[in-house]
């Protein structure tokens, strides 16, 4: 039976022989979530990786010393720590110190690695989009234009821009998945 | 355990487009941190959106090219005239091979579109709508990148320039690539 997150936190706090395995499992579960948070807020894969290490280190240290008051809410604790550390990283605009052991924990599971997008496949999949979808995707993510501005430039509504964008991203995802499967 | 309230795809796309307000973002992130299933879905969206975000577009402005040079990119430039057809080599010591497609009248231009097709089949390889250009350059800059080596090497680049009150001006260049 798979241990609940709270159970892992209690095992770590107890410090018994199975604590290291519980630490590794907790890191395995939460590293992808912290990494995505970092990617979204720090806008840089390297800094997101730094965030993963810093947050997991802080949470594990808190768990080891019994400072996570409510283990049932360890996900909220992890999110709060991510917010605080990311804020500090933005303020410092620098890199946090790394912990070698945690770096290894975060690195051993392929699920922690960012998706390695086939850039050439992306070029082809972009070409396969309709003109409007391609424009909206490029303006949204490559030019970083806000939705309202895109709507003005394309003489449409923000709601329409969002619909076009959802569909275009779904089409790109399907296209990239199909190419990946074809390569296997 | 399966998520009983999965986050809809459009919400995840809005999140990665930074198009959710702060409250909605907080609520979504609380859900994501407690849900491995929705985290995986969010990662699938991010895989696409962050790939597009970090991509160097095929059409570059001179300013962006200069920034790439300043950041350490090893850049080589080829100059092409309209109608020209010739081989180019993407050498090992090159990060970006810039094709400067010249001979263009960009006076009054409001928009430049690019279509890249395969010479031998006519198949569309890449398309850029309303790409970057500098009116004073008299050319557009195509950023050929190392990962393009998996795309067809025989390319026809068709540039369409739009300006108010005149028919679109077009020019084509046939560029045959050799990656070493």
Shape of chain A: elongated
Secondary-structure element series of chain B: HHHEHEEEEEEEE
Average pLDDT figure of chain A: 87
Rounded mean pLDDT of chain B is: 93
State the shape of chain B.
elongated
State which percent range the strand residues of chain B make up. Answer: 35-45%
Structural class label of chain B: alpha+beta
Main beta sheet strand tally, sense and closure of chain B: 5 strands, mixed
**How many strand segments of chain A?**
0
Describe the overall structure:
The complex is a heterodimer of chains A (184) and B (180). Chain A is mainly α and 184 residues long. Chain A has nine helices and no strands. In chain A, helix 2 (19-42) runs antiparallel to helix 3 (45-64), helix 7 (131-142) crosses helix 9 and helix 8 packs across helix 9. The longest helix of chain A is centred in the C-terminal third of the chain and has 26 residues, at 158-183. Chain B is α+β, with helices and mostly antiparallel strands and 180 residues long. Chain B has a five-stranded mixed sheet with strand order 3-9-8-5-6, with no helix packed on it. In chain B, strand 8 (154-163) and strand 9 form a beta hairpin. In chain B, helix 1 packs across helix 3 (36-54). The longest helix of chain B is centred in the N-terminal third of the chain and has 19 residues, at 36-54. The mean pLDDT of chain B is 93. The chains are: A mainly alpha (184), B alpha+beta (180). The A-B interface holds A 29-30, 32-33, 36-37, 39-40, 45, 75-76, 78-79, 82, 115, 117-124, 126-127, 131, 134-135, 137-138, 140-142, 144, 146-147, 162-163, 165-166, 169-170, 172-173, 176 and B 9-10, 13-17, 19, 29-30, 32-34, 36, 39-40, 42-53, 55, 57-58, 116, 124-127, 129-130, 145, 147-151.
